[in-house]
Amino acid sequence: MTDTQARITEYWAGRAEAYHREHRTAERAKADRAAWTDIFKRYMPQDAVRVLDMGTGDGYIAHIIAELGYAVVGVDACEPMLDEARDEAELRQEEGINTPLFAEVDVTDLPPSFFDFDVVVSRYLLWTLREPTEAIRGWAEALKPGGLIIAADATWFPNGISKDTQVISDNGPDSFVLTYTDDVLEELPLATADSPEAYAEVFRAAGLEDVEVVELPEITKIDEEFGTPQGHESRPTFLVIGRKPA
Fold first, then answer.
1. Given CA atoms 107, 109, 114, 119 in this order, what sign does their dihedral have?
2. Is the distance from CB of 232 to CB of 168 less than 8 angstroms?
3. Sheet of 101-104: strands edge to edge?
4. In whole angstroms, what is the distance from residue 153 CA to residue 136 CA?
5. CA-CA distances (angstroms) from residue 155 to 92, 180, 197, 208?
6. What is the DSSP letter of 191?
7. CA distance 154 to 217
8. Which 3 state secondary structure label does DSSP give 31?
9. What is the pLDDT of residue 3?
10. Which residues of the chain carry a pLDDT beneath 50?
11. Out of 17, 43, 138, 235, which could bridge 154 as a Cys pair, Cβ 3.0 to 4.6 Å?
């Protein structure tokens, strides 16, 4: 793991508890969950069975997709985030809800045991990868021929990151700006992208076909109604969808 990646992983470790709490108890939590459930109902192939959630974090999207009836594996390199995901799974299992499996795995270096998935998904991950094209190529290797990659993201920081940005973190409210410095942003090709097309180009460069961008105005509407979590600003959210050649 590079020094940059170690810094990023440590940042998300410090954010794990607050991040999961926001998903469960924030004023906008119910609306968010309904919106993301509807989004994946619309765009997941009906005949899909096995789904791999990259950069699963606290398992937010993995749990949503599992509840829709799919067999989901969520992977992440951040152990505290996975602790939150597994704790959530235990609670859901007690309620008889279908839950994902979780594994501590580098999303840019999948082991060969990850293969034959129908769909690979991610949410708010690609912007923080140092080599997103190489990552997508690796994800495609985990897919069946003709399988889909569905990634949700946004053009987060086209003008850089405000130095007064604060977050809720075990590592302190300034941990975000101390982690995502200008030097680090220069290593993250999509962090300062100003258009979804930059993400689509990564998919094409990785060899995916039928690449499309789908805008998600419903997420912007939730931002407008409830406001954004601390440290965030509202940015247009979108899906990028691409297919592995058959």
1. positive
2. no
3. 101-104, 71-76, 50-54, 117-123, 143-154, 237-243, 209-215
4. 14
5. 33, 15, 10, 21
6. T
7. 12
8. helix
9. 87
10. none
11. 235
C-alpha to C-alpha distance for 4 and 131, rounded to whole angstroms: 12
The b/e string for 33-68 (b: 16+ C-beta within 10 A; e otherwise) is bebbeebbeeebeeebebbbbbbbbbbbbbbbbbbe
Contact, 198 vs 223, CB < 8 A? no
CA–CA gap between residue 98 and residue 78 (Å, rounded)? 23
Long-range contacts of 61-64 (CB under 8 A, 24+ apart): 61/36, 61/121, 61/122, 61/123, 61/152, 62/100, 62/102, 63/88, 63/89, 63/92, 63/99, 63/100, 64/33, 64/36, 64/37, 64/40
91 close to 44: Cβ distance less than 8 angstroms: no
Contacts with 168 (C-beta within 8 Å, 6 or more apart), sequence order? 15, 18, 230, 231
Contact indicator for 81, 58 with CB cutoff of 8 Å: yes
Angle, in degrees to the nearest 10, between helices 60-67 and 79-94: 30
Provide CB contacts within 8 A for 107, sequence distance 6+: 54, 55, 75, 76, 77, 122, 125, 129, 135, 139
Q: Can you tell me which residue has the tokens 């060969």? A: 112
Q: What pLDDT, on the 0 to 100 scale, is given for residue 233?
A: 86
